[in-house]
Amino acid sequence: xxxxxxxxxxxxxxxxxxxxxxxxxxxxxxxxxxxxxxxxxxxxxxxxxxxxxxxxxxxxxxxxxxxxxxxxxxxxxxxxxxxxxxxxxxxxxxxxxxxxxxxxxxxxxxxxxxxxxxxxxxxxxxxxxxxxxxxxxxxxxxxxxxxxxxxxxxxxxxxxxxxxxxxxxxxxxxxxxxxxxxxxxxxxxxxxxxxxxxxxxxxxxxxxxxxxxxxx
Length: 216
Fold this sequence. Notes:
Layout: H1 4-11, E1 14-17, H2 23-36, E2 40-44, H3 50-61, E3 66-70, H4 75-84, E4 88-90, H5 96-104, E5 108-110, E6 112-113, H6 116-125, E7 130-132, H7 140-147, E8 156-158, H8 167-173, E9 178-180, H9 191-208
Parallel strand pairs: 1-2, 1-9, 2-3, 3-4, 4-5, 6-7, 7-8
Helix pairs in contact: 2-3, 2-9, 3-4, 4-5, 7-8
């Protein structure tokens, strides 16, 4: 049976990463993203107010969007995210203990990996997808090599320095989607500015998938 994460990935496999967002900005920025078509929103935990922002986003958008946390560094963080209403755990590294904690808590998990060894360890622990990070030093050729060995259908999302114009080469190599950071949102950006950036990413993605299928 398809999960909410599966459905969100089918609608738009772009994860909005709201690093540094303050709770008072969470709902206006979240609304701008949702109105632009985003269905997955991540708030990294390494900034103040992250759990409160996750709570607000989950309360407002949790029925139609997957809301979760990034930069999750310990298994105990997983419980705090779950209490705040988050449903997705994203890490910058391949920590299988965090993956297992997410699985045990009934949360989805997309850990950060850079090698096949990390990828297979995380998948064995129950990961729902893989975050290829940092993409700045992992070019499309790495995606091609990785997708040749990981199980077919495993979501593989490059994260780090992704811009609308850089997506095509990664998609051609086999990327399933992307995590989007500062090119989409930085603290202080207005909802209107975020909406403009979001729509550029959506348009770029749709140009690569005109019939809902990747042009690989």
